[in-house]
Amino acid sequence: MLGDISKAEQIYIATGYTDMRKSIDGLCAIVQQNFQMNPFQKNLFLFSGRKHDRLKILYWEGDGFLLLYKRLEGGKFQWPKDAQAARSISIQEFRWLLEGLSIDQPKAVKKVTIAKVI
């Protein structure tokens, strides 16, 4: 189905900023060359420009790429300003980002992973 991003296995955010003039091929090249990842996996790749008022999402649907674009009329996305890298985020962090919140919520309850003892 066109645009069903709910089937994405992982969500990756390109921290820093990206040239928003890039199209699908340019964003795929960033994923492959800069992040050493495969853009043909069922993952969401999020990109933002310098002003952080625009967002592009790249997603492989199995038969072609989907490119989503959102421009805010007022406000900015709370985008991580780390060096240019890919960072995995959860679906909750993705929701926070789209709602204008920081993905690094200091008071959010974090999941605990327990090591398996043999």
Find the count of extended strands (DSSP E, 2+ residues). 5
N-end to C-end Cα span: 43 Å
Residue windows where pLDDT falls under 50 for at least 5 positions: none
Alpha plus pi helix count: 2
Radius of gyration: 15 Å
Domain count, please report it. 1
Strand order of the largest sheet: 4-3-2-1-5
Mean pLDDT metric: 86
H/E element string? EHEEEEH
Organism: Pelosinus fermentans B4
InterPro entries: Transposase_IS66_Orf2
Protein name: IS66 Orf2 family protein
Would you write up a description of this structure?
- The chain contains 2 helices and 5 strands; from the N terminus they run βαββββα.
- It is globular, with a radius of gyration of 15 Å.
- Helices cover about 15% and strands about 25% of the residues.
- A 5-stranded mixed sheet has the order 4-3-2-1-5.
- It starts with 9 loop residues before the first strand and ends in a 20-residue tail after the last helix.
- The chain has one domain (about 5-100).
- The model has no long low-confidence stretch (mean pLDDT about 85).
- With about 120 residues, it is of the alpha+beta class.
- It has helices at about 25-35, 90-100; strands spanning about 10-15, 45-50, 55-60, 65-70, 85-90.
Gist of the model:
The protein is of the alpha+beta class. It has helices at residues 24-34, 91-98; strands spanning 10-14, 43-48, 54-60, 65-71, 86-89. Helix content is 16%, strand content 25%.
